[in-house]
């Protein structure tokens, strides 16, 4: 895969300030008494006009808090995350401009929190504090110059101006190098652009030699390091390696697998001969996904390809009617195919997003202990 930070986790631990793994969230929701009083308290706080129902407007702070707890940037800052905010709101309102009762609020909140907890269990969020120290170490490392030269040789053939070469260099620095994610628009406008302006305030933007590039790249990273020292950036980092081991575990656990297949069969629509259409296997796989440590279909392109391969294997698109035995057999074949593909070629996925406010103050809805950021220094 392209653009992934290498899996060298050696530097990350020093700056980890919290690991959010969903355990506390699950404990909260499963403790009926604690969760009821939590809902009670939150509902009262949100119900501004005290009519016992939450309007779409009154729900907004809850939706914003859920977003903050998920490590999303603020609403309105990116179409991708705004889509998730809309989804969260729709969970409460079912897409209609209706008011939400306390019972509904409790149910949806419990679903969302349990979903988050399950997601976090598979895919814990590590909160990193990027304060310039790692970046400095990276620049001082013996391998730095050869890495910089390699970046330069990629762009020099195009006779690119210095600024373009430097941008290319910055783009290739990752969280592992102590650089906040350069794909984040906030990082571009608050860190990279000001640093570039400072660097170019007293020099023209010519095509550089290798020596110039090296010297200016170091200067640029030094400016960024100083910015980070003054204003550390908090980044929510997730990584996950899909290697098929979760599917293997599930396939080996006959009791759990049978239970999942039974409930899957119960849920799919059937014709009068008690048969279903092959196309529902897709839906059934989605229901099983979490138990097999797989992401939902549509969430990760590379994983979708693996699932599509498995669907092809059972010719899912021929819409043939299948009975219960065939249904279960095909679903097991799909799982086995996914497992074999991932065992042969594991898929590593990581993401980094800047947390714009400390999670402690941003997420008042979900202020369970694991979600608060407490610097370890
Ligand atoms: Ca109200």
From TrEMBL:
Database matches in SUPFAM superfamilies: EF-hand
Molecular function via GO: calcium ion binding
Gene3D superfamilies per record: EF-hand
TM stretches of this protein: none
Entry-linked InterPro entries: EF-hand-dom_pair, EF_Hand_1_Ca_BS, EF_hand_dom
Superkingdom to which the source organism belongs: Eukaryota
Residue ranges occupied by any EF-hand domain in the UniProt entry: 34-69, 302-337
Entries under SMART domains matching the protein: EFh (SM00054)
Keyword Calcium part of the UniProt annotation: yes
Keyword terms of this UniProt record: Calcium
PROSITE patterns reported in the protein's UniProt record: EF_HAND_1, EF_HAND_2
Protein's UniProt name: EF-hand domain-containing protein
Species in which this protein is naturally found: Rhynchospora tenuis
Source lineage: Eukaryota, Viridiplantae, Streptophyta, Embryophyta, Tracheophyta
